[in-house]
C-alpha cells in the first residue's frame, strides 16, 4: 500500500481483522478531529454548511427524490441510517438535508467525536457502535433511506452480509445510496508516480485472506504520530460482487454511475481540482475513480 509497508496478503479471521481496524480507526479519529481537512469548528458553527462528500452525493441523489418538497432538502422528514459514519461530519450534513439520522460505526472513538459534533451543532443524532455486517439487530429499527459514502466497503470482508444489513435496515420502498472508490482504482499500484499501472488483485479474495499493511499514514493533515495502532486489513470487491450482493439481498438497482474524481489523492499522480482529486490527461479519460449507485427495496 505504501513505501513504508507494501500491501501484502495475510491469513486472518474477520473478527481479528475488524479488531485491528477498530484500533486503527480509533487512532485516526483523533487525528481527523484536529485536522484542517475536516474543520469541525467551521462545520459546527455554520448551520448551512454540508461536507464536500455529501454535497457531491446530493447531486447524484437528488434526481431520485423527485417528490421532495424542497430539492435542497431531499431527505426532509425521512428516517435515515448512515453506515460507517466515522466522526459524523457527513452524518450531520445528512441531517441538515432534512433527515432524522442514525449513524453507525465500529470505532468508539469516532462515535465519541461524532456525538460531540452533533451536540455542539445542536442536532439530535443517534449513534450506534456496531461492525456494519452485524448492525441491523444492534440498531433495532428500519429506515426510509440508508446511506454509505465514501471509502467504506474495502473494510468489509463479507459483502453479501453487508448487503443483507442494508436490506434489513430498509423499509419497503426505501432507498439505498452508495458511492465509493471504483474497484478498478483499488487494483492500481499506488506507489507508481508517473503512470497508471495495475498492481493489486481486482477479484475478491478467498475466505480467510485479506490485504494488510502497517503505517501511520492517513488521508488528512495532522499529527500522524498519534496513530499507534497501524495495522490495517482490507478486502477488494469487484463490480460484479457489489451488484450481485445487493441484488441477492432483494434490492432493485435504480441508477449506476462511474466518475472521474475522488475526495482524496488515491494515486500519486492525481491532481487537485475544485476541492477534489482527478487524474491528469490522458488517464482521466481512461480510468474511473469512483462508483455510485442507487437501489430500492421491493
Q: Can you lay out the helices and strands and say which pair or pack?
A:
Layout: E1 8-11, H1 14-33, H2 40-45, H3 52-61, E2 79-83, H4 89-96, E3 100-105, H5 108-121, E4 126-129, H6 135-139, E5 143-149, H7 159-169, E6 170-181, H8 183-186, E7 209-214, E8 231-234, H9 239-248, E9 251-259, E10 271-273, E11 276-278, E12 290-297
Parallel strand pairs: 2-3, 2-5, 3-4, 5-6
Antiparallel strand pairs: 1-7, 6-12, 7-8, 9-12, 10-11
Helix pairs in contact: 1-5, 7-9
CATH class: Alpha Beta
**SSE order, as H and E?**
EHHHEHEHEHEHEHEEHEEEE
Strand segment count: 12
Structural class: alpha/beta
Uncertain segments = none
**CATH 2nd-level architecture:** 3-Layer(aba) Sandwich
Write out the strand line-up for the largest beta sheet, numbering strands in chain order.
4-3-2-5-6-12-9
CATH-derived topology: Rossmann fold
Radius of gyration: 18 Å
Q: What portion of the residues fall into strands of 2 or more residues?
A: 15-25%
Biggest β-sheet: count, sense, barrel? 7 strands, mixed
Q: Given the C-alpha coordinates, what overall shape results? A: globular
- Give the proportion of residues in helices: 25-40%
Total helical elements: 9
What name goes with the CATH superfamily? Vaccinia Virus protein VP39
Number of domains: 1
Distance between the termini: 39 Å
Overall mean confidence score, pLDDT: 94
Amino acid at each position: 500500500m505504501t513505501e513504508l509497508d507494501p500491501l501484502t496478503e495475510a491469513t486472518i479471521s474477520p473478527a481479528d481483522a475488524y479488531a485491528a481496524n477498530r484500533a486503527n480507526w480509533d487512532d485516526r479519529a483523533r487525528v481527523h478531529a484536529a485536522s484542517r481537512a475536516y474543520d469541525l469548528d467551521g462545520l459546527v458553527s455554520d448551520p448551512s454548511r454540508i461536507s464536500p462528500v455529501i454535497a457531491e452525493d446530493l447531486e447524484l441523489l437528488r434526481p431520485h427524490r423527485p417528490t421532495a418538497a424542497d430539492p435542497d432538502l431531499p431527505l426532509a422528514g425521512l428516517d435515515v441510517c448512515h453506515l460507517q459514519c466515522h466522526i459524523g461530519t457527513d452524518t450531520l450534513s445528512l441531517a441538515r438535508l432534512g433527515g432524522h439520522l442514525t449513524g453507525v460505526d465500529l470505532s468508539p472513538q469516532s462515535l465519541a467525536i461524532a456525538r460531540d459534533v452533533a451536540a455542539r451543532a445542536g442536532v439530535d443524532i443517534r449513534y450506534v457502535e456496531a461492525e456494519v455486517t452485524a448492525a441491523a439487530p444492534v440498531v433495532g429499527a428500519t429506515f426510509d433511506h440508508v446511506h454509505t459514502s465514501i471509502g467504506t466497503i474495502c473494510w468489509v470482508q463479507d459483502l453479501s452480509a453487508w448487503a443483507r444489513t442494508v436490506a434489513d435496515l430498509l423499509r419497503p420502498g426505501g432507498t439505498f445510496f452508495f458511492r465509493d472508490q471504483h474497484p478498478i482504482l483499488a487494483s492500481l499500484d499506488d506507489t507508481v508516480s508517473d503512470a497508471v499501472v495495475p498492481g493489486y488483485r481486482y477479484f475478491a479474495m478467498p475466505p480467510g485472506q485479506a490485504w494488510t499493511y502497517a503505517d501511520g499514514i492517513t488521508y488528512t493533515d495532522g499529527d500522524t504520530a498519534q496513530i499507534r495502532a497501524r495495522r490495517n486489513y482490507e478486502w477488494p470487491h469487484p463490480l460484479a460482487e457489489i451488484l450481485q450482493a445487493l441484488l441477492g439481498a432483494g434490492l432493485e438497482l435504480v441508477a449506476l454511475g462511474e466518475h472521474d474524481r475522488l475526495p482524496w489523492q488515491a494515486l500519486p499522480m492525481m491532481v487537485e481540482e475544485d476541492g477534489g482529486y482527478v487524474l491528469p490527461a490522458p488517464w482521466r479519460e481512461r480510468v474511473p475513480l469512483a462508483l455510485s449507485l442507487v437501489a430500492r427495496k421491493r
